Amino acid sequence: MKVVVTGTRGIPDIMGGVETHCEELLPRLAKLGYDITIIRRSGYVREDKPLTEWKGVKIIDIDAPKSKSFEAIIHTFRAINKAKALGADIVHIHAIGPNLLSPYARLLGMKVVMTHHGPDYNRDKWGKFAKMMLKLGERLGCIFANQVIVISNTIKTQIEERCGRTKNVTLIHNGVKQPETCSYPEYFCELGIEEGKYILGMCRFVPEKNLHHLVDAFRLLKKSKRIPNDMRLVLAGDADFEDDYSMSLKKKAKENHVVLTGFVKDRKLQSLLTHASCYCLPSSHEGLPIALLEAMSYNIPVVASDIPANMEIGLDDSHYFPCGNIEKLADRLENMISLSHKIHYDMSLYAWNIKAKQTAEVYNKSM
């Protein structure tokens, strides 16, 4: 069975939740015997010599204008045409925006699998017209996709209510890989931080992640001397497109002596997760956050906003705070930092090998 994947910027080592999802899932599907090709957006490719295959996944790079508004839809159109030329049986389209073109893929005679990663139209960065198009993409995907995958029960309920899609919908949670604990003293020295003496925020610099709230809560804790003087805040990530929000966040971070790492992967990220005193995700919008699951896999204390997607993970109430409430966020951070031990989370539900087998079943049902 030949499957072509689009709707994502690409893999490997490209920032984003959908990208991490595909990076973990697609090689496992290839290992199960599926012919998997991913169409990457060439503007995000950083290899000196672009890959043509990675861990059994075939890779094709196609250009698209690097524009927040038009990049995804133009690239998806070109990717679907390429999928047809390759003789694809299935086009697997990730995210609701690119699913504006699910009717086109069906018209070309291919089966469509849609993965709904969350209602992107709720994100603050989109204007009125963009939100309308995202809602239309969700609706068209729910009408024309042969099979729909949702990553949370919250999304499943939403598409039942908004789009009337009740059949051929499969819940497959995001996964998390086995943690690779390590130390990287040279990197920590470069950042000016110490093991066990920092709060970690790890995500893209976009408004709905509310990292400015995390900076405000950290400033409140420091000003009131409720955390040790040597405790730092580390923000690991960056913006895809530098804009007013990302620039204002970086300015606020620097004014409050917050450590900015940029986009990090592999040993640098592993060391940050291994030795954090606490991880925080204060976002107002999520599908099912891989970054939060990844932090939990390292058994570090976590704090998250009380939005439905975060609540679905089922943490104890002590890990949640009312979204947008800086004082409550500061309280939760103070409590978690004061813990003298790791917290063990049951991550068995989120094994990627299980997610791959569940996705393979969806492919088989679509034919």
Characterise the protein shown here.
- The chain is α/β, with parallel strands linked by helices and 367 residues long.
- It contains 13 helices and 14 strands.
- The strands form 2 sheets. An 8-stranded mixed sheet has the order 3-4-2-1-5-6-7-8, with helices on both faces. A 6-stranded parallel sheet has the order 11-10-9-12-13-14, with helices on both faces.
- β10, α8 and β11 form a beta-alpha-beta unit.
- The protein is globular and about 65 Å long.
- The mean pLDDT is 95.
Percentage of residues in strands: 15-25%
Give the N-terminus to C-terminus distance in angstroms.
9 Å
Helix/sheet category: alpha/beta
Low-confidence stretches: none
List the helices and strands and how they pair.
Layout: E1 2-6, H1 17-31, E2 35-41, E3 53-54, E4 57-62, H2 71-86, E5 90-94, H3 102-107, E6 111-116, H4 128-144, E7 147-150, H5 153-163, E8 169-171, H6 185-191, E9 198-202, H7 211-223, E10 232-236, H8 244-255, E11 259-262, H9 266-275, E12 278-281, H10 290-297, E13 302-305, H11 308-311, E14 320-321, H12 326-337, H13 352-366
Parallel strand pairs: 1-2, 1-5, 2-4, 5-6, 6-7, 7-8, 9-10, 9-12, 10-11, 12-13, 13-14
Antiparallel strand pairs: 3-4
Helix pairs in contact: 1-13, 7-12
